[in-house]
């Protein structure tokens, strides 16, 4: 089939460009989240803020998810590792949901009232701005490439954006009105979405164009 062969050869450079783009986006995500984790945990410890400490630990979960995608796209044939990487991302979603649920319920039961943290407010505000761009860039590249793992990881980043917004609102509302429970309630809502995304990633439903590819991979083996 000469025509198909020419088409495949023409697509190869474009697919490699998309893979390289995803590697750069994932590297930026990992670097940002490592910095975010250190700053958040430090600021949370100083302010005795369970929300900020939890936010910092959540960043380490995002690093795990992004690192799994980074590892996949260093392989010679990334598509072969699609299902395994999706499972790692799914576990990261479940870990995020578990931690956020436990920390939120604990904060509500113990009536944890953190001190005002200007550093925490600035950090979460920056995250609300930066993370959506990383998520959007990875999601677009993942969809063009047909990579379920890249799309799933972009959703993990988006969930972390929501968590950033929840923590930011909680810090601001607590500082202004003393509503200490605000970020805990928002955290519980976010946990529900994290579980749903985790289930979809586990099933391989994160990107419609990749489901067929996953099934074909299973058939070939």
UniProtKB/TrEMBL annotation:
Q: Which UniProt keywords apply?
A: Cytoplasmic vesicle, Endosome, Membrane, Synapse, Transmembrane, Transmembrane helix, Zinc
Pfam families on file: Cation_efflux
Q: Which Gene3D superfamilies match?
A: Cation efflux protein transmembrane domain
User: Where in this chain does the record put each Cation efflux protein transmembrane domain?
Assistant: 28-200
Q: How does it sit in the membrane?
A: Multi-pass membrane protein
**Annotated localization:** Cytoplasmic vesicle, Secretory vesicle, Synaptic vesicle membrane; Early endosome membrane
Q: Which domain of life is it from?
A: Bacteria
Q: What is its main location?
A: membrane
Q: Where does the sequence pass through the membrane?
A: 24-46, 52-74, 86-110, 116-137, 158-182
Which SUPFAM superfamilies does its entry note?
A: Cation efflux protein transmembrane domain-like
**KW Transmembrane (keyword) present:** yes
Instruction: Give the family from UniProt.
Output: Belongs to the TMEM163 family.
| Name this protein carries in UniProt | Cation transporter
């Amino acid at each position: 089939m000469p025509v198909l062969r020419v088409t495949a050869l023409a697509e190869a450079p474009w697919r490699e460009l998309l893979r390289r783009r995803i590697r750069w986006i994932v590297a930026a995500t990992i670097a940002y989240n490592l910095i975010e984790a250190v700053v958040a945990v430090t600021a949370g410890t100083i302010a005795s803020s369970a929300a900020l400490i939890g936010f910092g630990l959540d960043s380490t979960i995002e690093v795990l998810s992004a690192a799994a995608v980074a590892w996949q796209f260093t392989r010679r044939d990334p598509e072969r590792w699609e299902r395994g990487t999706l499972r790692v991302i799914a576990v990261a979603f479940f870990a995020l949901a578990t931690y956020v649920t436990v920390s939120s319920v604990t904060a509500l039961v113990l009536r944890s009232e953190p001190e005002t943290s200007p550093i925490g407010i600035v950090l979460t505000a920056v995250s609300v701005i930066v993370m959506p761009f990383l998520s959007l860039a990875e999601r677009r590249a993942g969809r063009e490439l047909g990579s379920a793992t890249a799309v799933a990881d972009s959703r993990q980043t988006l969930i972390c954006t929501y968590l950033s917004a929840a923590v930011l609102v909680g810090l601001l509302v607590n500082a202004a009105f003393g509503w200490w429970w605000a970020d805990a309630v928002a955290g519980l809502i976010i946990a529900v979405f994290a579980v749903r995304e985790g289930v979809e990633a586990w099933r391989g439903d994160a990107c419609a164009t990749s489901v067929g590819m996953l099934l074909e991979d299973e058939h070939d083996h």
